[in-house]
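Quiz preparation item.
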C-alpha cells in the first residue's frame, strides 16, 4: 500500500505523537480509508518528514506514533511566481503545476489587460496543498492574496533577481539569464499580456526579460515553462 503524505501544524506534534484532525483527518479516514496500523508520512512544513503508524482513530481525530524522522533538504533558492489573474479558474492549473515543480509561492496579480478580478485564495491554497501532497513535497507551497499591478512593482524590490517572461523579447532566452541569489521572482502576464508602460515599469525595477521562444504561449503554459526552465537551470530538477 502506498504510504500517503499528510500535513499538520507544528502544534499537532507532541513528542512522538501526531494528532490529525480537520480536512486531513477526513482525507485519511473517509477518502483513503486508513485503519489503525497503517503507515503515513506527516510533515509540519518545517522540512522534516515523520514516518508514522496510525495508533488510534477517533470520531474526528487520529493519533499517529512517529517511528522515524528525517530532515529533507530545502532547495537552495526560494522561487515566487507572480502570475496574472486568468479567466475561468485557469490559474488553478498553473498553481498545481508550479507547486509540483517546486515553486514556493504563487502570487496572483491584476493588471490593465486582466479580464478577471475574482480569485479564491482558499481554493487555490487547497489545490497547492493537494499538489504538494501528491508530489511528495516536505514543504507546503503557498498562494498569496490577489494584488494589483502597483503592489507587484513594489514587491519586486524584495527579491535578489527578477525574471520576466516577455513575448516581445528578441535577444535573451532563459538559459542566458539564469537568476542569481536566493530569493527569485518570476513574472508571467495574463491572457491579454502587459500594456507597454506596464512592461517598462517591470523592466525599470531591474527585471531581466526573457523569451520563451517564438510561439505565443497561453499564460498558464508560460508559467509552467518559465518555472521549469528556471528550476532546471538552477539544478533543482536533477535526480
Ligand atoms: N501578447 C500575447 C498575445 O499576443 O496573445 C498575450 C500574452 S500571452 C498569452 C500571456 C503571457 O505569457 C505573456 O504576458 C508572457 O508573460 C507569457 N508569454 C507567452 N508567450 C511567451 C513567449 N514566447 N516568450 C515570453 N513570454 C511569453
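Solution:
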Amino acid at each position: 500500500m502506498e504510504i500517503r503524505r499528510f500535513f499538520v501544524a507544528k502544534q499537532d506534534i507532541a513528542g512522538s505523537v501526531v494528532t490529525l484532525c480537520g480536512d486531513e483527518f477526513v482525507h485519511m479516514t473517509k477518502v483513503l480509508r486508513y485503519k489503525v496500523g497503517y503507515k503515513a508520512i506527516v510533515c509540519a512544513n518545517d522540512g522534516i518528514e515523520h514516518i508514522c503508524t496510525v495508533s488510534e482513530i477517533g470520531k474526528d481525530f487520529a493519533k499517529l506514533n512517529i517511528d522515524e524522522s528525517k530532515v529533507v533538504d530545502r532547495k537552495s533558492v526560494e522561487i515566487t511566481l507572480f502570475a496574472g489573474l486568468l479567466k475561468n479558474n485557469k490559474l488553478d492549473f498553473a498553481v498545481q503545476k508550479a507547486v509540483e515543480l517546486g515553486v514556493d509561492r504563487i502570487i496572483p496579480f491584476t493588471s490593465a489587460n486582466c479580464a478577471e478580478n475574482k480569485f479564491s485564495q482558499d481554493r487555490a491554497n487547497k489545490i497547492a496543498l493537494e499538489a504538494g501532497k501528491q508530489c511528495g513535497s516536505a514543504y507546503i507551497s503557498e498562494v498569496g492574496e490577489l494584488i494589483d499591478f502597483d503592489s507587484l512593482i513594489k514587491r519586486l524590490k524584495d527579491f535578489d533577481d527578477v525574471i520576466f517572461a516577455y513575448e516581445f523579447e528578441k535577444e535573451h532566452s532563459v538559459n542566458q539569464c539564469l537568476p542569481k541569489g536566493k530569493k527569485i521572482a518570476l513574472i508571467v502576464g495574463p491572457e491579454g499580456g502587459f500594456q507597454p508602460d506596464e512592461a517598462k515599469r517591470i523592466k525599470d525595477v531591474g527585471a531581466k526579460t526573457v523569451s520563451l521562444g517564438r510561439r505565443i504561449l497561453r499564460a498558464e503554459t508560460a508559467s509552467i515553462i518559465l518555472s521549469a526552465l528556471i528550476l532546471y537551470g538552477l539544478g533543482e530538477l536533477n535526480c
